[in-house]
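Tokens in:
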């Protein structure tokens, strides 16, 4: 493996980590996701907890992600009356829509 630049020192363990995917039944997937939700963990951290591996205690930036193709930006731009190229404005409108969704559908206590 190539030498890691000194400024990346703290990130070196993460750089060397390998993401592993598990092909499991739907019931296992749902159980892990539900436990992660109940424990306020990411599914990855829930798996680490199940395996008795250390879980990072560093605060994580709360965020949601979705993959958007060029066609999606065109559809969203049309929906919001924005140019498909105005991705920042589209992101702001999507964020507002997600906030409104959460207000209409609060999670159970």
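Residues out:
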């Amino acid at each position: 493996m190539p030498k890691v630049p000194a400024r990346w020192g703290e990130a070196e363990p993460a750089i060397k980590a390998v993401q592993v995917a598990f092909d499991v039944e739907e019931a296992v997937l749902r159980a892990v996701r539900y436990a992660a939700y109940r424990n306020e963990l990411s599914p990855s951290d829930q798996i680490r907890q199940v395996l008795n591996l250390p879980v990072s205690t560093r605060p994580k930036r709360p965020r949601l992600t979705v993959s958007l193709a060029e066609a999606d930006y065109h559809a969203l731009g049309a929906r919001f009356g924005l140019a498909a190229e105005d991705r920042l404005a589209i992101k702001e409108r999507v964020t507002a829509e997600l906030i409104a969704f959460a207000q209409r559908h609060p999670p159970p206590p």
